[in-house]
Structure formats: C-alpha cells, structure tokens
Amino acid sequence: MLNADRTDPALLRELIAGELLAARERTAQLTGAVDDAELVAQHSPLMSPLVWDLAHIGNQEELWLLRNVGGRDPMHPEIDPLYDAFEHPRAERPRLPLLPPAEARAYAHEVRGRVLDLLAASPLEGAPLLDAGFAFGMIAQHEQQHDETMLITHQLRSGPAVLDAPPPPAATGAPLAPEVLVPAGPFTMGTDTEPWALDNERPAHRVDLPAFWLDTAPVSNGAYRRFVADGGYDEPRWWTPEGWAHRMSAGLEAPLFWQHDGGQWLRRRFGHLEPVPDEEPVLHVSWYEADAYARWAGRRLPTEAEWEKAARHDPVSGRSRRFPWGDAAPGPEHANLGQRHLRPAPVGAYPEGESPYGVRQLIGDVWEWTSSDFTGYPGFAAWPYREYSEVFFGPEYKVLRGGSFAVAPVACRGTFRNWDYPVRRQIFSGFRTARDAEPRTEG
Ligand SMILES: [Fe+2]
Questions:
Q1: Strands 258-261 and 264-269
Q2: pLDDT band at residue 3, thresholds of 50, 70 and 90?
Q3: Rounded to the nearest whole angstrom, what is the distance from the C-alpha of residue 221 to the centroid of ligand 1?
Q4: Cα(56) to centroid of ligand 1, in Å?
Q5: Could you tell me if 204 and 378 are in contact, meaning their C-beta atoms sit under 8 angstroms apart?
Q6: Which of 15, 10, 72, 365 is nearest to 196 (CA)?
Q7: Confidence of residue 1 (pLDDT cuts 50, 70, 90)
Q8: Dist. CA 146 → ligand 1 center (Å)
Q9: Structure confidence at residue 443 (pLDDT)
Q10: C-beta neighbour count of 430 within 10 angstroms
Q11: CA atoms within 13 A on the CB side of 284
C-alpha cells in the first residue's frame, strides 16, 4: 500500500480501490458488531450514534467524489444538513431525523458503487482534486478516521465485549536506553511531495532545533502508576493553572477507564475488565495529565517539531523520510496500526520501526501529545476547504502525533498532524517526554 507507482493510472486506480475497500470493510465490521438498537443509541454525549458516522461517511464521499469531482447532482439534498459535522454538535445528533441503519447502509453502498464507476473512467490528473487521486485518497482517509472515531465509541459503550483481536507483539531484545539524544541542527518539517498529505502538513520548511533528549518509547502504565501513587493528582505544583482547575472540576484521579480495586489498578478495554499492564504505553490521558506527569518527572512534553525531527530526520543523508524506518509503507513489522490489535504494544516492541536516532514506536500504538498549539506552517494554504484545518488553528487545540493502534496506515505518516482539546482523553492518547540537552549533554 502506497508503495505503488502513482504515475501509472491503472496502478493508481487499483491502489485507490483497495484503500476504499479496506475502509469499507472496517466500517462494516464496526457497525456490524452491534444490533440496530445500539447503532442508533448514543453511547456517550462525546460521540455520535454509530449510524450517524455511517451515513456521514457516505455523504462526504458523495459530496467530494460524485459532486465535486464527478459533477453529479445531489442524490438526496434533503439529508445533507443532517450529516454536516459543523451544523450539529455530536450531543444533538441522536435527536435528528437520521437515516435508519438499513437506509444508511444502502445509501453508503449506492454512493460507493457510483464512485467506483467514476474511478474507472477518471484520468486521475488535470485538476488539483484529481492529481495523484488526491480526492479519492482524502475520502479513504476520511472513512478510516471515522472508523477510529467509531472505535472510540465502542470503547465508551458499556455492555459485553463485541470486538476481538489478537494481542500485539511483545517487546524484544535488550532493555532500551530510557532516552535518546537528538543533536542540534536543522531538518525539513512537513511535506511538498506526499501525494495524499492534507493541507496542514504542507508546505515543507526548514526548522532549526537545539539538541534535546527524547524518551526512547512512550511513557508506560507502570511509570504513570508511580506518578499516581506519588500523589501526582493531589499536587497543584505539577499542573498548569488550567490543568489543575480541570483536574478539580472533572475529579480526575487516574487515566480514563482505570479503576482502583482491592489495591490494584484495573482498566476497562472494549468490554473487558483487566489489570492495568505496566509494560504498555499509558492510554486515555488528557494533555493536562501528560503535561503534569512530565513536570513531575523533571521533564517536559516534546514540541511538535522535536517529535517530527526524531521521527523523520536521517542524519546520514540529511533528508526527512516518510516514516521513522524509511520511505516504505507501514507493514505489520513496523508499527501497531490499522486496528489489527485492540491495544498498544508493550514499550520496546517493533524494533524494525525504529528511527535513525533509535526512537521506538513513534508511529502507531498511541497518539502522542506534544506541547505545541495547532497552527499553520509558514506559507500554509487551505485546501480543499477551510473547514478541514484552518478553522481549528489557535491555542485552544494541542497537536498529537504518530497515530494509534486504531489509525489506518493510509491515514498515518511522519508528517500527519492530529489536534484536540487539552481536556480530551476518550481518544487513544498517550505521550512521551523530552528535556533540553544543553545543561547536561556531557553529564
Ligand atoms: Fe467527517
């Protein structure tokens, strides 16, 4: 996937059709795992009913591919406002006259059939939306992003487990050094060449960074448990004023889905209650919690630029690569992506996914909070619509990097940027920490 020659239209059509199919198979799995009553129910006020995501996927595909690329008329203009994410906040969506499950499925299926006809006849060049199949790639990523959203809904849902997957690979080899030095110097951040990169990943630009140390792997549950046991949630000095106010008002005491039971910590994971595994990266923490942990540990969150340099910069060639391991598309040996496993892999897994600096698990496992606000790069231009990224730029959103076990390879790369509010923790979020190198480089 994505290693194919994109200059050959037949191969590109095949690649696009494969990505659209993979997304739809995952959508079918996530919406087929529960009955119709659960599809229309709202499992959390933070989330849409699953049936909304299903028809919204079809509606965006119709809008971008059939109408904007294909020039077709709307199939059902009366339903467009129902599935416009900007018109109705998630909490309101259950009260809308949504398409029932069978009709939502039929609609998405009919759109897809027409899209495959359009794809077969498309030159895949000659217009910005068509070049390298961009709009098709954007729609495949969009569906996979909603599949991740639907997986979050599954995690928030109560009731017996309905999803299953084998465990991820174990950590291998000698124990890792706790941190890695990334020397000072410039690197290329963002991209001009990644064909399906979204507007906020562009343009490529040089960023010069001082030297820093970065955790070799994401912070583990075991390490985070020590922060909890040390009274980390009771000490305002570790928190920003906003973070402490939120910790108090929301009553935070541990990561979301953790519960204390008879002297041990348990977690609920897709309907299973199980002991918190110390060796896995911590999951379901807010930016405020990640930031407080880092201060308690005498460290800080990395900036977004530091994360990307550690993930992409090749000190030998001086070039930025697509992924930590090089330019090859992610395989199961590189990273825990694509919902193959329903949990992060233990810290130290995926040696073949290591970056040139020796940093592990940058891609996959858990989204990693950075200290950076979500903003446009120098020379940013909104494309193909302002609502994709630009309307979210500002200090109220923090950037997350690297993707989680729930992110599909098509929607993940070294330049990919996610953003969310610092209070959010139902997302598959973890973090790693950093520190400046200057005071202790030769220590
Ligand atoms: Fe969407």
A1: antiparallel
A2: low
A3: 32
A4: 7
A5: no
A6: 15
A7: very low
A8: 6
A9: 43
A10: 28
A11: 18
d(CA 270, CA 146): 17
Ligand 1 center to 185 CA (angstroms): 38
Split at pLDDT 50, 70, 90, the class of 289 is: very high
Distance 250 CA to ligand 1 centre (A): 28
CA nearest to 221, candidates 276, 262, 158: 276
Side-chain-facing half-sphere of 405: CA atoms under 13 Å: 26
Whether the Cβ atoms of residue 247 and residue 287 lie closer than 8 Å to each other: no
pLDDT tens string 329-342: 999 999 999 999 99
Q: How far is the CA of 208 from the centre of ligand 1 (A)?
A: 35
d(CA 272, CA 161): 6
Going from the Cα of 58 to the center of ligand 1, the distance in angstroms, rounded, reads 10
For residue range 29-76, list pLDDT tens digits in order.
999 999 999 999 999 999 999 999 999 999 999 999 999 999 999 999
CA nearest neighbour of 217 among 306, 345, 342: 345
> Exposure string (b/e) for 339-351, b if CB count within 10 Å is 16 or more?
bebbbbbbbbbbb
84 CA to centre of ligand 1 in angstroms: 8
Q: Residue 113 contacts by C-beta under 8 Å, 6 or more apart in sequence?
A: none
What are the backbone angles phi and psi of residue 248, rounded to the nearest 5°? -70, -50
What strands lie across the sheet with 429-430, from one edge to the other?
417-420, 394-401, 367-374, 429-430
Kindly compute the dihedral angle of the four CA atoms of residues 409, 412, 414, 420, in this order, to the nearest 10 degrees.
-160
Q: Does the reported pTM lie above 0.85?
A: yes
Helix (H, G, I), strand (E, B) or coil at 266: strand
Closest CA relative to residue 140, chosen from 409, 357, 361: 409
Give the pLDDT band of residue 4 (cuts 50, 70, 90).
low
* CA–CA dist 164, 63 (Å, integer): 33
Bridge-based pairing of strands 258-261 and 212-215 is unpaired
154 touches 162 (CB < 8 A): yes
How far is residue 12's CA from residue 136's CA, in Å, rounded to a whole number? 10
